Amino acid sequence: MNSDSNAATKVAIVTGGASGLGYAIAEKFVQQHIRTIIVGRNEEKLQAAKEQFGELCTYKVCDLSDLAQIPGLVHEIVEEFGQVDILVNNAGINMKKPFEEVTDEDFQRIILTNVTAVFALSREVVKDMLPRNRGSIINISSMASQYGIPKVIAYTASKSAIEGMTRAMAVELSPEGIRVNCVAPGFIATDMSAKALNNDPERKNKVLSRTPMGKLGTPADVAEAVYYYATEGAKYVTGTVLPVDGGNSVGF
């Protein structure tokens, strides 16, 4: 009995899985009996998350902005767990600065982590998925790609790129059985957003007033959407961007 259920266990990689949205996504996957490998830079945080999630969770320490490490990371995961069924490209960095103060280095640093590393990791995982003609890749975008937000030019460029890449990947990979979709979270209550919004009542008021539901979302709301894309329930869904935003992207 046990070996059969183990054979059916899917394997997922969640980048940035030790905190915030990634943590919620990894938690949901483990609850649904998906073997989940969380990837991040901070071993202490990864270890703590693994302890919370239990034996279905493993972690790998990797700075994804060091592109040379990515093929080895994927090879190691495939060697250890046999395959990768689901990839969630969640890791990302942000920076708030007035447009004219953003340096070339600032811009490149955000693009490297948020776009180039996502491409490189996806490419390596796809090499494992192609021979099996199945897989689900879920990218994480942002409201920054749905409309203009001031002082986050590099982040906005990176998330717009992610949505374009999602469509291009879906068109090329879906005939091979690999679905590619994207979740665009709105304003979600995390430690990071709480800090930002509580220190800026005007911004918080603006966020809530243009969100028809009138409240922030939770990381679990995003995790549910990601999980949907990872399941058979979404087997005819590819190339889509799903805003999980309480109506924010259409709010006035």
UniProtKB/TrEMBL annotation:
CDD domains: SDR_c. Keywords: Oxidoreductase. It comes from the Bacteria. Residues 10-186 form the Ketoreductase domain. GO terms for molecular function: oxidoreductase activity. The keyword Oxidoreductase applies. Pfam families: adh_short_C2 (PF13561). NCBIfam families: PRK07231.1, PRK12826.1-2. Belongs to the short-chain dehydrogenases/reductases (SDR) family. This is NAD(P)-dependent dehydrogenase, short-chain alcohol dehydrogenase family.
